[in-house]
Amino acid sequence: MTETALLHQAEQHCARRGVRFTPIRRRVLELIANTSGGLKAYDLLDLLARDHASARPPTVYRALDFLIDQGLVHRIESLNAYVACPCPEHAHRFQLLICRECGHVEELHLDDVNDQLTAQAKALGFQVQRQTIELLGLCRKCQAN
């Protein structure tokens, strides 16, 4: 998905939900979308400060929290980084393939995997509040090199 299409989708998504897609939130999403792999919060702050001199860590973290809540960005737990989500309707049911060589991140939506894990947790009396599935390895391109 192109950056333009991703931003347009985000605008529509926020409009449908009745939430504000402010210029700062838009710029944060744009910066994340321009990165092939995950982008760390302080790297994001450095990039944002070029356009908005007043940008501080709380500015970035508030924008990230909003984007995550709206399903427009995912946090890569193992890298402490953020990646744009091309399909916010699946925001809470996804898996990430992360190339440890080039940093490319691919999003999967294997709902049956999530259902099995949730069912097994429930059978054990465990209530799942958040689920993160990240698979680290090598993408096709890096394997070929």
UniProtKB/TrEMBL annotation:
Residues that hold Zn(2+) according to the record: 99, 102, 139, 142
Name under which the protein is recorded: Ferric uptake regulation protein
SUPFAM superfamilies hit by this protein: Winged helix' DNA-binding domain
Quaternary structure (record): Homodimer.
Cofactor binding remark: Binds 1 zinc ion per subunit.
Main location: cytoplasm
GO biological process: negative regulation of DNA-templated transcription; regulation of secondary metabolite biosynthetic process
Cellular component per GO, a single term: cytosol
Localization per record: Cytoplasm
Database matches in Gene3D superfamilies: 3.30.1490.190, Winged helix-like DNA-binding domain superfamily/Winged helix DNA-binding domain
Assigned keywords, A-Z: Cytoplasm, DNA-binding, Iron, Metal-binding, Repressor, Transcription, Transcription regulation, Zinc
Required cofactor names: Zn(2+)
Family statement drawn from the similarity comment of this UniProt entry: Belongs to the Fur family.
PANTHER family: ZINC UPTAKE REGULATION PROTEIN
InterPro entries in the record: FUR, Fur_C, WH-like_DNA-bd_sf, WH_DNA-bd_sf
Matches recorded under CDD domains: Fur_like
Gene Ontology MF annotations: DNA-binding transcription factor activity; transcription cis-regulatory region binding; zinc ion binding
